Amino acid sequence: MKHHTMNQTTLQEAANRLQAHLDGMPYQNYVYSYPHKTSYREFKKTTLLKEAWESENKRALFLYVHIPFCEMRCGYCNLFTTAHPDPQWVDDYLAALHRQASVTANYLGDGFRFEQLAIGGGTPTYLTPEQLQRLFHVLRNELSLNAQGISVEVSPATADAERLALLQQQGVTRISIGVESFDKEELHALGRPQKPDQVDRTLLRIRDIGVACLNIDLIYGSAAYSLKRWRYTIDRALAYQPEELFLYPLYVRPLTGLARKQQRQPEDHRLEAYFEARERLLTAGYHQTSMRMFVRADSRESRGQYRCQEDGMIGLGAGARSYTQSLHYSSHYAVDSSQIGQIISHYNQATEASLAQATYGYRLDREDQYRRYVLLSLLQESGLQCADYQQRFGSKVLDDLPEIGLLEDFGLGELQSEFIRLNERGIAYSDLIGSWLFSRRVRERMTEWHWQ
Predict the structure, then answer these.
(1) How many whole angstroms separate alpha carbon 318 and alpha carbon 79?
(2) pTM score, two decimals?
(3) What residue ranges of the chain have pLDDT lower than 70?
(4) What's the CA gap between 104 and 94, in Å, rounded?
(5) First to last CA, the chain
(6) How far apart are CA 326 and CA 348, in angstroms?
(7) What mean pLDDT value characterizes the chain?
(8) pLDDT digits (tens, 9 = 90+) for 124-174
């Protein structure tokens, strides 16, 4: 499929930028959504959420609930979370979540439905069983929750028998556990103080409750990385026959424990580790759906009709993002623990009036909207369907983004009249290709971001 031409200077700039990304970026980010949170800013004009959502399709929404509490802060973690919070602080947070859920139901109005629910963090199972029960009660009563899929993140230290039994009773269909590694030396290098035997006991408990989908998260590329250790971790994970495996390259981000230690990274073995794991998982009967996600071929866990490229998301809690087609909003974002504490305290005191408006985020113009659609489509193995794009935007994707043709020129993708998708090499470079597709405005804002 011959791609459209563009201004030769502009095309060359796009090609130079793609080559620079492939050679090594000055910063590294997981690209799983768009725009990145470091491009968010205070809005000059406050938006009432009732107005923002009134013309949106609300029949297939995604509900995300953020629990920003952990029993520890791992060395690589730049998530919005804090360790060992005061118990009263946690209760105040759940009360604020209750207020926000009630306000959300009010501004969504009639006819909304959540296809999927994900409770993440942080560590949701840091909450006591009583607090977890209270959280589910709020979601079901205030938001008429009847989601087809319910996912909860757990940690080896907090997923005890009582909490897992409660998750089973609440109809949880997917449990995701951050194992990261089964090797003691790698765990130490990652700044994650967990014991492999504790992980084994937790995984056996999860299997015992018969949850439809067990997901195991693993990280590769630590200072203690070796191919032998990585193979051991993959094989240990496969022994539990998880329905899903997520594989994350280690990116050392500003203000994290590993960044403060200035721990020297070894020669970059990320591609070696990625392709080794990919081969082992495909051989074991897994299907790759993205750079990071592998699904067991016989897995039947349903994800409903929600499509991240097209459908909206409601985020509850400090640190959770929400989005319509043209408006992304959240609380402020930070990595530093003191800054996170201030944001959570502000959230705990939020009034119903303040929870009914957006004051911080990003407004997507048409270019950002089609870039987001293309990016989120290409990062999946199925790729982008050209007819779907044209129906949505009233134009052809190669007219709007002619630089997409460079993916074929660089041996990263395949362009056909019906579809555009990354090839095996392109999927391995998904994070780099995703950030290459960011608009100039998003890139400039990310560059200007002051880490705090």
Answers:
(1) 12
(2) 0.94
(3) 1-9, 24-28, 262-268, 300-307, 309, 452
(4) 15
(5) 46
(6) 27
(7) 91
(8) 999 999 999 999 999 999 998 888 899 999 999 999 999 999 999 999 999
